[in-house]
């Protein structure tokens, strides 16, 4: 059975900005925040650290950054779905703008992930691509205009609300995340309040003056938004 | 400093035929054989198991199956050289026929590996490609005609001797391995006796009736060839 | 303004089975059939023959087999949209299973084609992919299960009707073609009668005993189906 | 039989900066200069204009910018070697930095070109790559440091002389061209005088104030260098 995610949640990764022990240290800070604020945190780990992140943390939901839609066999440099699962991944990121995939490969990778009960976290660029990918019923859809990634600029609220409406009209069970360009805890709060089920940040945190502190604040902001939403603010 | 390899050596991998704990079990058998016969064994591990193989074994020389010639930064699904090294890899396989690379990328990956003191294990197809790649001075060159890989057929001795001569004429310090199609310990012995500094097998072992036993026999055959060569047989 | 296509139409290509003058000869037969039966025929020409096919025929609607979503500039080996248009192409094939594209590239290529008034002929594999691609509003959608292409087996009528219904529910103006595995004029007739706006065949024609005769018969079959549909049979 | 090239020669292309009739106009200017100065001029034409350039000019030696190492058959969007030859190409550019190829594909493409008597014009980046590719015995080797292409900066003479020496030491029959960053006729003259058998320019010409005039001057400069070399200056 797939891991059950509670919304709203937070998502982060280290891309390839840091490696080795620093990944684990970062993951532990994310895990501590997850526990402190009782918020689910998805962590996209480099292939080489999936197992260690998984074993070193209690509550993080660990994702692989990509996998090939293959079955056990040849392909020495390919990423086998069974291997990322065995290493502790509970899901997989698909079609990130830094690793765009053919539509056919996206479909096949979602199929393989579902076979193995791996969560599918699918990235899209424009609204129409998000809508098209919603038809493949991923668990999470992350529409992030490519030009915003790592830019420090965020999507405007009109885009955010429109994309949520479009995705939900196709499949209300798909969770929609906003991630591109987020650099402050306030943005995290605002996106959740605007109806996103999740917010995410990677370079926005890593390039900040105090990454661990900002990571903690962002998870805190999800919790704050959750409570405000529950209170009907 | 790069890991020093003693010749003749043996090389193996599991490609993506097996995953998770089975990789570790296989690696431990290879490690035990390495110790039993005092023969260096190179093990190409899936990204997700590089660290665990490295930590679970004593003498294996662990290689990544591929890496991107990038520096720390973006590229969430790319394989960062610093990350494979931090995970315990002592080298990297480059240009395997299941992940062919542009000449430019081969050159850049060798450069990055050298910067990080990672052994470079470069695969070639034809003799002329082996010769061309010898000019890039990898540590190990593995010329394997693509059509033989996984076929159960081995290169003939004429090819083997010719390729060794050609490579050594360019750079005598490059170690030459034969791997394509090896399925028996006798072939391992014969290739070493014919002048190869190494023999390798992956699917030949995994598809055999008793993989662990064959793996052990192959490492034993390297040792036997080594002794016979020392005695000048 | 884009070329206006009258339905039902026929589509064919020579892939890379033939080249040079043989392409022109084939195109002329298609053109003659187009005139004889007053049926629009789309012809996907190799890049090198787009201009000559266009200049040697009267009624064929010529398509490029692919183009890069670039603007005039660098990219010496890329296919510039302006160049295929200048050569006489009236449209472009996108995402053929022999050249799968990322979702993002499909979107951008459709955008570029629309800017240049080039018809967009988009291929899909499964029904769900056809539906996803319908959201990008191509002019023509050609859902062909990859495993049928060149196989001599056709899609069953259940698939055909389902895919038409699904595409039309999203955008009734998209023309739906069936092409995979068609080898007889009767199949062409049947697919049109089943509601397809077009039928297509390439290897089915080229591998037949008498390709020119079969090509003519297939265009004739479109005409026959058209008349029967008009008569309400 | 392959087209015989007389050295020193000039090489140019339009990449994708211009298209359609403008390509033909440019080609005609190159052709006129070729005749005026009795210098061979290689012209790399976009796929769609290979035939028209070939038919509209008398002396240009026309090259395709790339081809796939396939045989007639499937691959609707691939570039068939037989097709570019039938369209009038006398050769093919291989491994341009804007379309880098795997070492294996470079080898196979050279083999296919030789089968069809197509001239092979192979690009390299660093000196060591030029040396490696010299082992594949192309007809022409064009070592151009990627960072110089389109930059307006040229290789220094030390690089030029070194690369010629290295290539000739492997195969003296390989013609060596210098192209990256050339923007003036004087540079063309200097490179030929320094021992290059050819000089080339594309963006350097197209971005100049008076492209046709500069193109003519560059071909003239090849002629001037040729005469000065013959006179032993």
Helix and strand topology:
Four copies of one chain form a homotetramer.
Chain A: E1 9-13, H1 21-37, E2 41-44, H2 50-56, E3 61-64, H3 81-86, E4 91-94, H4 103-115, E5 119-124, H5 127-134, E6 140-143, H6 157-170, E7 175-178, H7 185-193, E8 198-201, H8 203-206, H9 211-230
Parallel strand pairs in A: 1-2, 1-8, 2-3, 3-4, 4-5, 5-6, 6-7, 7-8
Oligomer: homotetramer
Q: What is the structural class of chain A?
A: alpha/beta
> How would a textbook summarize the main sheet of chain A?
8 strands, parallel, barrel
Shape of chain A: globular
**Low-confidence parts of chain A:** none
Strand tally of chain A, please? 8
Order of helices and strands of chain A: EHEHEHEHEHEHEHEHH
The whole-angstrom Rg of chain A is 16 Å
Mean pLDDT of chain A: 94
* Continuous helix count of chain A: 9
How far apart are the first and last residues' alpha carbons of chain A, in Å? 35 Å
Helix-residue proportion of chain A: 40-55%
Protein chains sharing the most extensive interface? A-B, 40 and 40 residues
Strand content of chain A: 15-25%
Strand order of the largest sheet of chain A: 1-2-3-4-5-6-7-8
Task: Explain what you see.
Chain A is an alpha/beta fold and 233 residues long. Chain A has nine helices and eight strands. Chain A has helices at 21-37, 50-56, 81-86, 103-115, 127-134, 157-170, 185-193, 203-206, 211-230; strands spanning 9-13, 41-44, 61-64, 91-94, 119-124, 140-143, 175-178, 198-201. An eight-stranded parallel barrel of chain A has the order 1-2-3-4-5-6-7-8, surrounded by seven helices. In chain A, strand 2 (41-44), helix 2 (50-56) and strand 3 form a beta-alpha-beta unit. The longest helix of chain A is centred in the last third of the chain and has 20 residues, at 211-230. The model of chain A has no long low-confidence stretch (mean pLDDT 94). Chain A binds chain B through residues 13, 15-21, 44, 46-52, 65-66, 70, 72-80, 82-84, 86-87, 93, 96, 98-99, 150, 202-203, and chain B through 13, 15-21, 44, 46-52, 65-66, 70, 72-80, 82-84, 86-87, 93, 96, 98-99, 150, 202-203.
